[in-house]
Amino acid sequence: MFRLIRTVGVIVGYAALATTKLQHMKKQKEKLPTVHMQDTYISLMAKKWAGRILDSADVTVEVTGHNINDDQPVLFISNHEGNFDIPVLVHAIEKPFGFVSKIEVKEIPFLDEWMMQLNSIYLDRSNRRSSLQMIKDGVASLKEGHNLLIFPEGHRSKGQGLQEFKAGGLKIAKSAGVDIVPIAISGTAAIMEKYNSRRMVPGHVKVQILEPVPAAIFQDHSLDEVGQLIRARIEDALHA
Q1: How far apart, in Å, are the Cα atoms of 195 and each of 54, 59, 79, 84?
Q2: Residues 139, 136: Cα–Cα separation, whole Å
Q3: What is the pTM of this model?
Q4: What DSSP designation does 168 have?
Q5: Which domains does the chain show, CATH number per domain?
Q6: Which of 127, 133, 187, 226 could form a disulfide with 205 if both were Cys (CB 3.0 to 4.6 A apart)?
Q7: Whole-number Å distance between alpha carbons of 49 and 172
Q8: Which PANTHER family match (predicted)?
Q9: Residue 5's CB: how many other CB atoms inside 10 A?
């Protein structure tokens, strides 16, 4: 229980501290010449936040696979095990990126403005119009040069195995004409979800950044076929 309280304190305290620096960072960001440099600068604070959360929870992260660090926008697609997926991925992925996140996150104090600065997009799963707007906003963000990450399972698996992928989010990559980078993450559910989020235990998480899927794949394959291909690659990586 102490570890959980300590980690929550780090999340809230560091978020509050970061928010006080946000206006200064926004001004500094605007002086940078490219979108990639601007996003990288803003993401530095998010990476510090993620690192402190992982340290406070005694979580180590092992990253393997492809190093995606150029300035071409991509859509990351990751499986979704647990609550710790977010700080782990912020820590593990070199490229700055925003999340396609559920609308409920918007209500968390301090977090909304940072989500916006990271070019995240909200989705209200109960509203079909919101899904269409999410795709439109995602395409616009990628075309502007930002990177996005989606969890196509929609919900945390909580360590119960890979769930079915919703292929709709792939419309973002298809319409924007960007590569897709699959990510396999394992070990986060054992930190909290195993105990119904009432406890927190130390853990070791593995993040595998898989070979990018080129944008041209949509010339010969449907959204569902691409979704099944990416899911199979992630599943193979998780069981390797």
Answers
A1: 18, 16, 20, 14
A2: 5
A3: 0.90
A4: G
A5: 2-238 (3.40.1130)
A6: 187
A7: 28
A8: 1-ACYL-SN-GLYCEROL-3-PHOSPHATE ACYLTRANSFERASE, 1-ACYL-SN-GLYCEROL-3-PHOSPHATE ACYLTRANSFERASE-RELATED
A9: 11
Q: Which helix (H) or strand (E) holds 44?
A: helix 35-56
One digit per residue, the tens of pLDDT, for the chain of length 240 reads 455 555 555 455 556 556 677 778 888 888 999 999 999 998 988 898 889 889 988 999 999 998 887 889 999 999 999 989 999 999 999 999 999 887 777 776 667 777 888 898 888 777 777 788 888 999 999 999 999 999 999 888 888 889 999 887 899 999 999 999 999 999 999 998 776 656 788 899 999 999 999 999 999 999 999 999 999 999 999 998
What does the block give as tokens for 2? 């102490």
The amino acid that residue 81 corresponds to is E
Give 125's contacts (C-beta < 8 A, 6+ positions apart): 102, 103, 131, 154
- CA pair distance 39, 96, nearest whole angstrom: 6
The residues with which 64 forms a beta bridge, in sequence order, are 208
Q: 156 CB contacts (<8 Å, ≥6 apart)?
A: 80, 81, 82, 83, 85, 189, 193
Contact by Cβ (8 Å): 155, 188: no
- Looking at residue 82, its amino acid is G
